[in-house]
Write a structure and sequence with these properties.
Blueprint (H helix, E strand, L loop, with lengths): L4 H21 L5 H20 L12 H19 L4 H26 L12 H22 L4 H10 L22 H20 L2
Helix pairs in contact: 1-2, 1-7, 2-4, 2-7, 3-4, 5-7
């Protein structure tokens, strides 16, 4: 992607860390969470690879079409599951954005071997629409992650106290339960949303 090397490496680190946490979430005992975490891990590591500064490593010509094929398959899978959960719909938009960026970078690389061609790709409105979507998603999800007041926290905790865990589960045995913590999953998705905004801005 275009842009200075130092912010680029920070973006690589953030996406790789997010993908690594998603791998931990795949240890969840809930199948739906494992499937979602697997898709998000692919997104995280794919974004980390795409965010490597071009001044440090210029991908070969076949890399961008390969990204488009991989995330196109992920988009089809998310499309098949989009009717069951709103999160799958968000994942569909994310994978479609990855396909769009891969195609745009492939066109840019083909028209300029240095990889720094900034000409119009013919569909600038797509970039704007994706930026608007992910910016809105990050703001909305960030508000939901913000801690509530003391009164609302106490009432929410009493109203949503978890049911006793079955014997032998990670919670009952004192385990951390990293794959079943929704607040960390939401923070993971916010991080990927921020990374997506940064990548779209440098496209």
């Amino acid at each position: 992607m275009h842009g200075p090397a130092s912010p680029g490496w920070l973006l690589v680190a953030l996406c790789a860390a997010t993908g690594s946490y998603c791998l931990l979430r795949m240890r969840s005992s809930v199948e739906q969470q494992r499937v979602a975490a697997g898709g998000e891990a692919v997104m995280g590591f794919g974004m980390a690879a795409m965010a490597v500064p071009a001044a440090v490593f210029a991908p070969p010509a076949w890399a961008w079409p390969a990204y488009a094929v991989v995330f196109g398959g992920a988009a089809l899978r998310a499309l098949a599951s989009a009717r069951t959960s709103p999160h799958h719909l968000h994942h569909l938009v994310g994978t479609a954005a990855m396909v769009y960026m891969a195609v745009a970078m492939s066109v840019s690389s083909a028209s300029s071997p240095s990889g720094h061609h900034h000409g119009a790709t013919g569909v600038p409105l797509v970039t704007g629409a994706l930026l608007a979507y992910f910016t809105g998603y990050v703001l909305l999800a960030g508000v939901r992650l913000a801690p509530a007041g003391p009164a609302s926290v106490s009432s929410a905790s009493s109203a949503s106290s978890p049911a006793p865990a079955p014997a032998g589960s990670s919670v009952a045995s004192g385990g951390t339960g990293w794959g079943d913590r929704p607040e960390l999953a939401r923070a993971c998705r916010v991080s990927m949303g921020i990374s997506m905004v940064a990548m779209l801005l440098t496209l």
